[in-house]
Amino acid sequence: MTDTLEHAGSGIVATGVRRAFGDVEAVRGIDLTAAPAEVTALVGPNGAGKTTLLLVLATLLVPDAGHVRVAGYDPVHEPDEVRARMGWSPDVFGLYDNLTATEYLTFVGEAYRLGRARARSRAAELLEQIRLPEYADRPVHTMSRGQKQRLGMARALVHDPEVLLLDEPASGLDPRSRVELRELLRALARSGTAVVVSSHLLGDLEELADRVVFVDGGATVGEHRLDQLPTSTAARPWRLRALDTDKLVKALARQGYDADPPTPAGVDVWLVSDEAAAELIAALVRDGVPVVACQPLGGALEAAYLELTT
Amino acid sequence: MTGSGIATVARQEFRLRIRAGRWRLLLASWFGVLLLFTGLLRAAVGGYNDNDITDKGVVLYGGLMLFVLGLALLVVPALAAQSVNGDRERGTLATLQVTRLTAADIALGKFAAAWGTALVFLALTLPLVAYAITQKGVPLSRTLVVTLVLAALLGTVCAVSLALSAVLSRTTTSGVLAYLAVFALTLGTLITFGLVTAMTTETYTQTYSNACPTDLPADLPDAQRAEILAQCGQPQTSTSSRARTDRTWWLLAPNPFVVLADAAPRLPEETAEQRRAREEREARGEYQQSARDLDPLGSIGNAVRDLRRPPADDNTGGGTAVLSSRVEERKPVWPYGLAFDVLLGAGALLLTTRRLRTPARNLPKGQRVA
Ligand SMILES: Nc1ncnc2c1ncn2[C@@H]1O[C@H](COP(=O)(O)OP(=O)(O)OP(=O)(O)O)[C@@H](O)[C@H]1O
Ligand SMILES: [Mg+2]
Q1: Yes or no: is domain A12-227 CATH 3.40.50.1820?
Q2: For residue B136, is pLDDT > 90?
Q3: Whose CA is nearest to atom 1 of ligand 1?
Q4: Distance to chain B for A70, nearest Cα, Å
């Protein structure tokens, strides 16, 4: 994997996508663009239509309406062109029993028409990349959930796609694997891949994504660069810690702040802005409270999420 | 659709099958049952002494092949009946569909794996077939044709089972329906033929006249003599009923047993030399039953060909001369049946491909893609 923009693809453009299942309108007007060399997060509550949208992008479902281009091709009329350039990993997927990881990845490589020899060397490469080389000759059905998830990730990368669609890739991963996944996706983005990740792990996304698309009730409700998230006007929780918690609680009460009951982690106070936080710290210090920490709970992404979705 | 795509899917399916099942046990019991059957059949045609029947191979081979067909019809539906919806249930189908394999690659690859497995079962019968041939009388052409037809019929069953697994979302439903489809082809055609034929029963009027006897006994009373002479020479009519199987024979044609038996080339006529040898033996008082009369394939085939013949309307009390001249008119039934079965299989493969095509516009109710 080189860190250069070696293939400047055209990413994903989807506008006004609609898709119903019978009388359930799963997607009713989603817009999403994902540029090459960027990670785009797809965020929204359960049932918002994220998986359905990804199925449309992955050439599995015909949209009822809307304009869709994946890697510059139409998934409905040119699915093979799209498939040659797109990798997809579903939220839940099965693996074949009684197959080793190498055999599995080699088979997928052949299905992507890499040729037997190339498919085999690619399998070894990928197992190294997802840190499962010791599973090369072990049957995949004995793998743990997280290991399977990683293998599924490798599966989607077999043919070196220029567009990568991942549906909740981090669910079930241990903390270290999540960090590694993040690094892997960042590296892929640096090398020019357009990455779309649907996830509920907002903390992870905050460190991973360049852009975020919020969906709710089957429609896009916001599309932002991560460093330009809308600033919220609603109060959000900040966590305070002091050497003397009692003193902190009393001081907060005296100054009329809206604080939650103290927990071992600290005391949560609802504040409307960064300025309000600065004011509070100054006031506490004046009061002689030994404050050691004051930080917003949940990132800016979580704040925006709570603001935009219902 | 590409050859390498089909091969990729077929190889994968084959590998999964081999690793998943207890194949050794299954193949061993298949062979064991057939061995037992062949042994018993051989003992049965042995007769009082082993020379009672000539050309025992004809009986052994025919019986064995019909039995193989029956047993295969019990085994083969299971080979493909959960192929597509099983993958869907396990969540491995969609990840296959997003690769560059086409719907036809997947459908034909799965079919090839199932059919290939069925042919392995068939290949296992070869030693027994070889033994049957050593028992004399089986023409080579018959073994070739029967093998090909048997393979084609098993292909049809595989294709139909596969289509059911693609159309139905539940593996249990498709499993049961695959066996029902086999039932429909075998017993179903027979039952339908019987019931429909009963409806075609018609009454017909036959006109005949008896020649006047010239050698009436002299002592016959005059009254009786007069009565007989009055009736003879006059056209008489009688009314009876008959089933018009010539209108319904085609209902039996798709039956795999009918196709197999009728497609088997008939045994060659007795040569003059054989006839002389037989007559010499019979002159010595050694009677042997000819396998020609016991040929299981030929007799089923002839029976269905007879059904196809229209009744002779000029029924002038048909003697043997009339019957044997009409044997020549027996027209084959199997081309229709085989064509039907092969088209059925091809249609099933087409349907499977359509059901596997993505992106999908319509999903069966309540089914998720992934
Ligand atoms: N095949 C289907 N048939 C009927 N309804 C469906 C089907 N697939 C999805 N839906 C419905 O469409 C809506 C959106 O589902 P989807 O799976 O896209 O949500 P999601 O955003 O991925 O949710 P989650 O975060 O829980 O994964 C849901 O209400 C779901 O019940
Ligand atoms: Mg989902």
Answers
A1: no
A2: no
A3: B368
A4: 13
